[in-house]
User: Fold these one by one.
Assistant:
Number 1:
Amino acid sequence: KFGAVVGDITILDNRSNFVEFTQPYAESGLTMVVRVKQEDRTWLFVLPFNTNLWIVVIFAFVYTMFVVWFLEHRSNPEFRGPWKNQLGTAMWFTFTTLFLSHREGLRSNFTRIVMFVWLFAVFVLTSSYTASLTSMLTVQRLEPKFTNIETLRRSNKKVGCDGDSFVKKYIEEVLRFHPNNIISVKSEYDYPEFFNNGTIEAAFLELPYERVFLNRNGRAGYIDSGVKHRFGGLGFAFPKGSPMARDFSRAFLKLSEDGTLNELEEYWFPSYSCSNPSSNPQCSNLDNDDRLSLKYFWTLFLVTGLTSTIMLVLYIVDLYKKFRRIPPLETTSGMDDSFWNGMKRLGMYYNEGRLDQSRKGPFSSPEGGNGEMFISSDEGYMIDDTPRLRQSTPSTDIQMHRTYSNTQTRVLRLAYTFPSRNSHVHGLSL
């Protein structure tokens, strides 16, 4: 007969019928330890951004590429030529901005403003991506192979426990595991061997023993699954009615209130569980919330998109104003000022830098052929499309304004020097 049982005695209801327990001096519970899930790192480089953010980044890239091409196409020779070359140049220019290695020169001030905002956005995105990817590569991110008991039970996985304690009965009656799937492990030192040879897929340990096991074997690929079933705690046992149980209970309460018990617990049972990353900086759970999402950058994309759109609109307005300064050509069928023809002429003016309507402004040449003379008020040149005149007559620069006055006189004098005087110069009968 003993007067007291001192040690890590788990307080249970059926045991309290025979002995007097003190107040618990430590927490107790049943936990599940499993192997670490093997992480597939093949696509790790895409994990810093979530799916929505990647979609927005790609859309912003394509939109910026289109805006840069549209703003530079008319004035920059590097953005002209066959459409395949134009597409390749625009894509290459926008892509190289991600690494700040673009070499193509910019001609338009509108493009410079767009690129200023875009380069700032690229700097923020690349810095955030690099920091997040570096964290993923340097910090050990662990996930349990199994996270709930139901999965183990339904798949008939074998689990291990201490066969000499109440734990085996608890797993069978409360957790409803089949007895054939419960493996008794005699010593805590045998668990790694049982895991390695595939005998068990999980181990059920009481909380203090789990902390000891993880501190000894945590770096070998074991982790707390987060499953916990609480018990009454750990206490001392005395015979029924013993006054010593009351005295020890008061002593435990005093040690708990002044923080002594917590200090002793952290000293002897330091927590290694990766389910609590703050207690162990060497491991961290990889959660979708850790990935960068659109909520962190939506303002940046909004500013970038608005800037590109505003510059695009201002450029189109400026282009249209220059186009309106050119008087419409008089044709054989009169003034063709329909909407669609106006759009065609505007597109031709944007793409070619001049109005080329040689099929609509004929005049008689000495050879009896048809030709046409064009004067661009924006570009400052004249084109004679008659085959012979193209070879024999040098190109002459003429600045044409909407208000003719003296300029009209100079144009008429120059036009009279050509072999044919029956000509049309932007609607002027000569």
Number 2:
Amino acid sequence: MDLLDLILVLVILLYAASGYRRGLVAGCVSLAGFVGGAVVGVWALPWVTGQVARGTATATVLAVLTVLVPAAVGHEL
């Protein structure tokens, strides 16, 4: 496992613990919002990364934010 895998496992475990406290239905809906937001972020990723030079730190930060921000918004809805 590399660092990204460990981070994803940690995030999933934290959301699972949060869902356990809130209840099954609310947790499932919240998870669906998170996944839906991440899908929207991945869908928008080529357009966002096309606006900056590839291989730069700015491109990396924008790529991560493009996926995580919609995922976080979807989770909170």
Number 3:
Amino acid sequence: MEYAVISPNLFKRLDEIVEKFKGKYSLIITTSGLSFALKEGIDVDKALDEGVKVLAYSHKFQPLEGLSIEETEALLLAKDLNYYLITADDKVKEFAEKEGVKVIVF
């Protein structure tokens, strides 16, 4: 099974993402993405119960210009591990494609 990192811009639609992609991809959110979700009051419990994993990008990094730290971590994790990135944001998509990341637009 292939892996896909869920971009934080889609966290409000997390249940929908999990429903659509479970079984096709092992789904990942990042540690800063999880922190973002908790700060924003976005419930991720159901997604975690459904098997979404939380991974950290293990290198020091600065946010890419114009992207949040959360979006940057998701993009860099997908790039380093050669995972797909699921996003709905055009700017994230553009950065990801420049970095050679495989993007799924939702």
